Amino acid sequence: DAGVDVDPFGDLNTAAERKLGQLVLEKYGTEFYILHRYPLAIRPFYTMPCYDNPAYSNSFDVFIRGEEIISGAQRVHVPEFLAERAQACGIDVQTISTYIDSFKYGAPPHGGFGAGLERVVMLFCNLDNIRKASLFPRDPTRLVP
Questions:
Q1: Is residue 5 classed exposed, middle or buried when 0-12, 13-18 and 19+ CB atoms within 10 A define those classes?
Q2: Please, are residues 16 and 25 in contact by the beta-carbon 8 Å criterion?
Q3: What is the per-residue pLDDT across 17-53, written as a single tens digit (0 to 9) for each?
């Protein structure tokens, strides 16, 4: 409806994320939104599939103004299933055997997330560049403070 073609089993690119942010603002009057149940094919091997549709994952992203600030998911905690998911993603299980072995001693269902705090500061302060929100910004021309 918005004039943007999006693959329902693909990842959103930056332009699509920003367009979605614009649509959410126009329709709901908020710059904050959450997407959940991303396609499993675009998530890391350790992401738990949805219980009711294994084509999707128990994952989420949090956005402000069309910019992702948090990404997270439920993690696979069963070692045999973890090995199966790794193989399905083309990962040699021997290269991550110690990681998989750590779950053999028991792990409860769990999740994790990552927050881009510099991006949050940039968006809340309405800065035009993320380097202005970083104590020690790095880019191809700057390696030292």
A1: exposed
A2: no
A3: 989 999 999 999 999 999 999 999 999 999 999 999 9
State what percent of residues in the chain have pLDDT above 90.
67
Strand residue runs (E) in 1-145: 32-36, 59-64, 67-75, 110-115
- Which residues 6+ apart lie within 8 Å of 107 measured at CB? 77
CA distance 70 to 54: 23
Cα distance between residue 78 and residue 108, in whole Å: 9
| Spatial contact of 59 and 72, defined as CB atoms under 8 Å apart | yes
User: Comparing C-alpha atoms, which of 9, 77, 78, 88 is closest to residue 45?
Assistant: 88
Q: Which residues contact 51 (CB under 8 A, 6 or more apart)?
A: 58
